[in-house]
UniProtKB/TrEMBL annotation:
CDD domains: CysQ
Keywords (A to Z) from UniProt: Magnesium, Metal-binding
Region (Disordered) residue spans: 130-150
Record-linked Pfam families: Inositol_P
The UniProt record lists the keyword Ribonucleoprotein: no
Taxonomic source organism: Amycolatopsis taiwanensis
Cofactor(s) the protein needs: Mg(2+)
MF terms in GO: 3'(2'),5'-bisphosphate nucleotidase activity; metal ion binding
BP GO terms, sorted: 3'-phosphoadenosine 5'-phosphosulfate metabolic process; sulfate assimilation
Identification of the protein by name: 3'(2'),5'-bisphosphate nucleotidase CysQ
Length: 257
């Protein structure tokens, strides 16, 4: 089920294409697994492991000199002195993956090189789409008179989010998967994603680099820069939004904290 797909010719040399190809391949494999009859925790565990192995095999075959940081793997500390590190979340939104027909789950593949994120992809198999830095999406813009929509965690939204929504005159849109929430901003379905309370580098790396390629603002919720491939991979908060919303959201969040 998780046999390596035939490579796209461009994937051998183009990191943007490789990220999209790898994420899409893992996503297709996960769709088949989701239809296999497994359910509950068995499906979650099988999905995490199968996607991790699939991506590790592809990176090992086509990018053998690179290091990998994966949610499902042991932290390879060689990454701290490496020039190129793939940061992957083989199955983001495991809870939603195990709740068919929900589509708010994703596969994250990002490349960090020489100090910053440079390429990546977020596959959303439930939508049949992979969003990549190879082909950035220009988000649809809501007009200034329209009510902003804030994507938030369906299970653990920040404590201040209700006040933020009230002050912005915004509507809250709960959903699963950090990747799905960031991509909802890329797609123009929402206008901002605000998270605080715990994430790791693999939760946001691929969505962030895709959002940046689309021209969106990305930062910590207080406006600080997002830094990846750090000794401590905890990266507990995140803001991705339309550029015009960044300053008011950051200002308000600083008042709440």
């Amino acid at each position: 089920m998780d046999r390596s797909p035939e490579p796209m010719p461009e994937a051998a040399t183009d990191d943007h294409v490789f990220a999209g190809w790898a994420a899409a391949g893992a996503g297709a494999m996960l769709v088949k697994l989701r239809d296999s009859g497994l359910s509950g925790q068995d499906l979650k565990d099988a999905g995490d492991l199968a996607s991790h192995r699939f991506l590790m095999r592809l990176i090992g075959q086509y990018r053998p000199d690179d290091v990998v940081l994966s949610e499902e793997g042991k932290d390879d500390r060689r990454r701290l002195s490496a020039r190129r590190v793939w940061i992957i979340d083989p199955l983001d939104g495991t809870r939603e993956f195990a709740e068919p027909p929900r589509d708010d789950w994703a596969v994250h593949v990002a490349l960090w090189e020489d100090g910053d994120l440079v390429a990546g992809a977020v596959a959303q198999p439930g939508l049949g789409t992979t969003f990549t830095t190879a082909d950035p999406v220009a988000p649809a813009r809501t007009g200034p008179s329209e009510r902003p929509r804030l994507a938030v965690s369906r299970t653990r939204p920040p404590r201040f989010v209700a006040a933020l929504a009230e002050d912005l005159g915004a509507e809250l849109v709960p959903m699963g998967s950090a990747g799905a929430k960031v991509i909802s901003v890329v797609r123009g379905i929402t206008d901002a994603y605000v998270h605080a309370g715990g994430q790791y580098e693999w939760d946001s790396a691929a969505p962030v680099v895709v959002a940046r390629a689309a021209g969106l603002h990305t930062s910590r919720v207080d406006g600080a820069a997002l830094r990846y491939n750090q000794p401590d991979v905890l990266l507990p908060d995140l803001l991705v939004c339309r550029p015009d919303l960044a300053e008011p959201i950051i200002r308000l969040v600083r008042n709440y904290r």
